[in-house]
Structure formats: structure tokens, C-alpha cells
Amino acid sequence: MANIALDTFKPVEARLPPRHQIGALAWLQENLFYSKASAVLTVVVSLALVYVFVNVFEWGILNAVWRADNTACRALEHSGACWGVINEKYRLILFGRYPFEQQWRPLAGTLLLLALIGYSAWPGSWRRRLGADWVCALAVFFILMRGGPFGLTYVETARWGGLPLTLLLSLVGIVAAFPLAILLALGRRSDLPGIRSICIVFIELVRGVPLISVLFMASFMFPLFMPAGVTIDVMLRVVVGITLFTAAYLAEVIRGGLQAVPKGQIEAAATLGLNYWQTQFKIVLPQALRMVVPAIVSTFIGTFKDTSLVTAVSLYELTGALQLALGDADWRVFYLEGYFFIAAIYFACCFSMSRYSRWVEARLYTGTKRN
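Now predict its structure.
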């Protein structure tokens, strides 16, 4: 039988190796031209994108007016962009109603905050002293903006605006909300009914209303409940409102991470003799926060963009400062260019946060991700 099997065996003829498995052509064939319908759709969308790009390039670059010449801008009759409105109004857009001759102070404060953010993003700065660095930097920022010490002219918070105010509201709101959100998330999962009920009521109440209503209550209704003669700065009230609102949303994100930690981790900590707080801060929270990094950063991005709502309570951050700049009748017609300008600022900040979160996520999962 063995001889018969050997006599009937015929080897398979050699075949050519597969082609275009890697490279640009293989990617295009696999993702954009894998069928006739896909190829047609790819061609149609590509032509549409080229048409849009050509028109936008012609409007925004070739036919644009870059100098602050209102007559030349109006002569375009919207056939080209008038970036001269940015050249003319950029200081009002970036710094709001802050006194013109003192605008070096918000510029220095903005650069200080950006440097602090960049320093905090560096892994070498992740130490206990980082919190003290934040406190010192924010104190210097407030001194620069408010004035008083070192002979600086006093500027009331009602005149703060533009990019410094946007950064201040978002940074303070995020930094203050994060520890509060952790406590709320732990409290909602607590075995003590009183603490659990308080946390549930707070989270659901705040999450059940829009941020604009929280800002209105903090700005207009809260002073009505204060004793006569007692006033709290509107800036502080708005910061507290943003902090509480952000904390409620972050608490639910963190609670999702806490629920994803296996129960065996807690039981193992108990066998080692760790108490509740040691278990949470050394075992549970590091794992929970690592799993919800994308959701946390999404909440941060939402908070950064939601600061534009403070215009409704007469605080002119970046979007509100643009509205002030467009109050000039000579330049009001070129509002589109102004919104493109602040949209570019928002996009740069949000995209940077998104990419940084991807990097942090990859760094935290270095020891556990599968190859």
C-alpha cells in the first residue's frame, strides 16, 4: 500500500508569490479600491475634495487680503478672505477688554500657563512637587492679571478676557475637578448608604442640567442668597460652577474604570492587610484611571470648549472677545475670518490634548499590551 501511495503522489507545481501585500498600492487596493462600488465612491469623493480644496485655497490664500485695509477687503466682495480683520483686531480677540497698555501682563501669563502645561506633560516632572509648581504658577498668573503687588496696576476680573481667560477657566476647572471626581466616584460605590446617596444625588442632579444653567445660577441666582453686603467675585463663582459640572461628568467616567477592576484585586489587597484607602490609591485607582484615559481626556476637551458659554454671564473669553472685536461696524462683515481664527486655536489645543492622550495611553499599557 505504501508503494502505491508513493507512485500516485504528484507534487503541486510552484506558484508565483502573492504581490502587493505591503506598500502604498496594497493599502489603496485594500481600503479604497477593493470593489467597483468602492472605486467609484473613492473617485467621486476625491474629486469633490479637490474641488473644495481648490476653492478654499483660492478664497483663503490667492485672493486674500492680509493687511488691515478695510477698503481693499470690501472691494473683494467676498471673493477672497479678509485676514486683515485678524491683523487689526488680534489684540482685542486674544486679550479681550484688558487695558491696552497693560496687555504684556496677560501675554506673560498665557506663556507661563503654556510653559506649565508643557512641563507637566514631560514624564520627568511627574513628582510630588508638581502640585506645588502648579500652585506657584497660578499664583504668579493671578498677580500678573489682577495686579496690586510690585506696582502693577489693579485690573478687575470683569475686564479679563480672551485666551488667558479661556486657559484659566479650563485649567482651574479641570485641575480642581479631578480630585473631587475621584471622591465622588468612590463615594457612589461606598457601602455607607448616606455617603452613597449624597454622591448619587449630586452627580445625577448636575448631569441632568446643561452647563449654561449652572453658570446662570452661579452668576445671577447665588448672590440673591448671600447676606446683605457680602459679594463673591463673579470669576470665582463661574470657576466653582465649571468645577462642579466637570467633576460630576468625570466621576461617572472614573466609576466606570473602578467597576472594570477585577474583584480579585481587592481581595488580594485585603489578604495583604491593606486598609480601604491603601487599597484604593495603591491597587484600584491606578488600574481604573489607566483604563479610562481616553474618556478622561474627552471630558477635558469638552470642558475646554464649554468655557465659551461664559459669554452668557458677561465674561468675554476667546469667543466672547471675538464678538467684541466684531462690534466694529467697519469689520463686522468679516466675521467668518474671525471665527476661522479662533477655530484654529481651539483645534490646535484640542488636537494636542488628543495626541498627548494617545501617547500617555501607549506609555501606560507598555507592560500589558499584546504584541
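The chain is about 70% helix and 0% strand.
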